[in-house]
């Protein structure tokens, strides 16, 4: 096996090694797929994998020196990250509760009308239940185009927000760089050149992305096949894991 092939294998193992343990981010990606479908869940998975790409790149460039540089800042970084995760979990709990309060049960025979804020296609001539635009003439081409543009813009916003949110969540654990740095330093013989390190980073990103997108597809594929209660349970489980991780990080920083 030549050096580049060995670097690719090492990178793939590293990427799967950091991604596969199912923690809060993985559960939240599945829950995002259940609630919002493939497009937004794939954006969430891409955000998480991009964080791994950033840290793998930093480790490949800085190696052990970067890990040692982060060590004195470990406590404040853990405290900041833990606090941010706690705030995030509480905010998601509140949002899930509000969404649950608005969603009618299947037993009452009512259905949800899609709204622009959900990124869904809003039928021409309908009005949002939250005070949306007035009824439009379905025979008016300009009205149809305006509605289509509005729905497309809403979907784009949701996709970008999901990517940014999951990038931020995953970056909140900056000590992940120490994991990649240890692999880079311990495998110096596998990464003898800059090209080998580039291959290592690319393989780590591809492996992480494949796992995150697998979780996204799992959640999105189950969308519509599970009862609403399952969605609620998955959201609560993900939020509880995020809250627990934040509390653990903050407690460790203060201890």
Give a structural overview:
By secondary structure, this protein is mostly helical. It has helices spanning 3-19, 24-36, 38-70, 74-102, 141-171, 176-186, 194-222, 228-254. Helix 3 (38-70) crosses helix 6 (176-186) and helix 3 (38-70) runs antiparallel to helix 7.
How do the helices and strands follow one another from N- to C-terminus? Answer: HHHHHHHH
N/C terminus separation: 47 Å
Multimeric organization: single chain
Strand content: under 5%
C-alpha-based Rg, rounded: 22 Å
Query: How many DSSP H or I helices?
Result: 8
Mean pLDDT reading: 74
The low-pLDDT segments are 103-133
Please provide the count of β strands: 0
Major β-sheet profile: none
Q: What is the percent of helical residues?
A: over 70%
